[in-house]
């Protein structure tokens, strides 16, 4: 059993069919996250309503890799922990157990985010049915104290191909997709809130670098920028927050 009074999060372990308590989570806070003010505000307001017992939406947080999608969810947990927010992480292959776990927690006096990171499906994959049942219910109403926050690199959670447009027709100005495209859209459409993340430009990247090196002398900052840009180039031109953090880990000692 998880002592949710003291435990902020848990991870479902399929082999043991139980939740593993996580006592020490990433200490990241909302102010640590740079260049995503709109995304922070949107998810913050949605979660604030949720912990207050008001209607709130399940969220699909999608976009470029390394841009802070999962970090935002961790920061949201830390901010609202004292308000009774808790988090349970599920890996995609374990989602079949979600319904049973929801039965165990739906009467508890806490609000739970079910978090699934890097979520994606093949069209033939039926494991997303567990998510559907939590979002929409069946003959049983969906639990009021559970929200799903999922991150994905794919807007519709499934791979999309150019051939998907074959068979799409326009009737009186309205687009009518063929069946397999409709299935793709209906899956992601069950999330009431879509929050897109995009990789920033060079100035955005350097702002994040600045946040990691706030005390560097001005005469070293230009050298810092040159090395940070080189590092970005070596990583395929990535200017994400993840790249900036990796640069900080590797080069922190050189810029003290």
CATH superfamily of the largest domain: P-loop containing nucleotide triphosphate hydrolases
Taken from the alpha-carbon principal axes, the silhouette is elongated
Strand order of the largest sheet: 2-1-4-5-6-3-9
CATH topology of the largest domain: Rossmann fold
Please tell me the overall pLDDT: 85
CATH class of the largest domain: Alpha Beta
The CATH architecture classification of the largest domain is 3-Layer(aba) Sandwich
The domain tally reads 2
Your description of this structure?
The structure is a single chain. The chain has 256 residues and is α/β, with parallel strands linked by helices. It has helices at residues 37-51, 69-80, 98-105, 129-136, 179-189, 202-212, 218-234, 241-251, and strands spanning 9-13, 18-22, 59-63, 85-89, 111-116, 146-152, 169-171, 174-176, 193-197. The protein folds into 2 domains: 9-197, Rossmann fold (3-Layer(aba) Sandwich); 202-255. The protein is built from 8 helices and 9 strands. Strands 2-1-4-5-6-3-9 form a 7-stranded mixed beta sheet, sandwiched between helices. It has a two-stranded antiparallel sheet with strand order 7-8. Strand 4, helix 3 (98-105) and strand 5 form a beta-alpha-beta unit. The longest helix has 17 residues, at 218-234. The N and C termini lie far apart (46 Å).
